[in-house]
Amino acid sequence: MKNVTDSFVSLGYWTFAGSFGFNTDILATNPINLTVVLGVLIFFGKGVLNDLLDNRKQKILNTIRNSEELREGAIEQLEKARARLRKVEMEADEFRVNGYSEIEREKLNLINSTYKTLEQLENYKNETIHFEQQSAINEVRQQVFQQALEGALGTLTSCLNNELHLRTISANIGMFGAMKEIID
């Protein structure tokens, strides 16, 4: 503290006209320099500082207004998106319900179609079996008839002699002739 008071007391001992020099006593010169600089800054910088602060204030207010507008726009878009989401969810539920009923319908149609196909296959199988049975029966009949005919021919050829054979032919020719006369 003594140095500070000494520096103010020593002001009276400075020479005013004779010499120029730097005062290297920091404690003595700093408060004076700071006071002068602050006074000049306040006097000349007051308008510039007010303008800077007003500009900054306007920028902040504009930014707040813009962010409020953006916020309101975002809220509107959010509401629209939520409405679209609800609509899409309802459509998805509808598709899901319709899809399940469509699947059930297709399942029933497939079961019915399969049942009809199996029924047709069963009918074709039965018809094929019946046809094969008829073919087998006809083949057996033909074989039995062929064997009976061969047996009868064998019996006739062994029993018939030429004279009996000629008489049978004559009798048959006579019957055909009589039938022809009846028809005419």
UniProtKB/TrEMBL annotation:
It comes from Primula chionantha subsp. sinopurpurea. GO terms for cellular component: chloroplast thylakoid membrane; proton-transporting ATP synthase complex. Residues 64-98 form a coiled coil. F-type ATPases have 2 components, F(1) - the catalytic core - and F(0) - the membrane proton channel. F(1) has five subunits: alpha(3), beta(3), gamma(1), delta(1), epsilon(1). F(0) has four main subunits: a(1), b(1), b'(1) and c(10-14). The alpha and beta chains form an alternating ring which encloses part of the gamma chain. F(1) is attached to F(0) by a central stalk formed by the gamma and epsilon chains, while a peripheral stalk is formed by the delta, b and b' chains. HAMAP family: ATP_synth_b_bprime. InterPro entries: ATP_synth_b/b'su_bac/chlpt. It is found in: Membrane; Plastid, Chloroplast thylakoid membrane. The keyword Flavoprotein does not apply. In plastids the F-type ATPase is also known as CF(1)CF(0). F(1)F(0) ATP synthase produces ATP from ADP in the presence of a proton or sodium gradient. F-type ATPases consist of two structural domains, F(1) containing the extramembraneous catalytic core and F(0) containing the membrane proton channel, linked together by a central stalk and a peripheral stalk. During catalysis, ATP synthesis in the catalytic domain of F(1) is coupled via a rotary mechanism of the central stalk subunits to proton translocation. GO terms for molecular function: proton-transporting ATP synthase activity, rotational mechanism. Keywords: ATP synthesis, CF(0), Chloroplast, Coiled coil, Hydrogen ion transport, Ion transport, Membrane, Plastid, Thylakoid, Transmembrane, Transmembrane helix, Transport. Belongs to the ATPase B chain family. CDD domains: ATP-synt_Fo_b. It comes from the Eukaryota. This is ATP synthase subunit b, chloroplastic. The keyword rRNA-binding does not apply. It is a single-pass membrane protein. The chain crosses the membrane at residues 32-49.
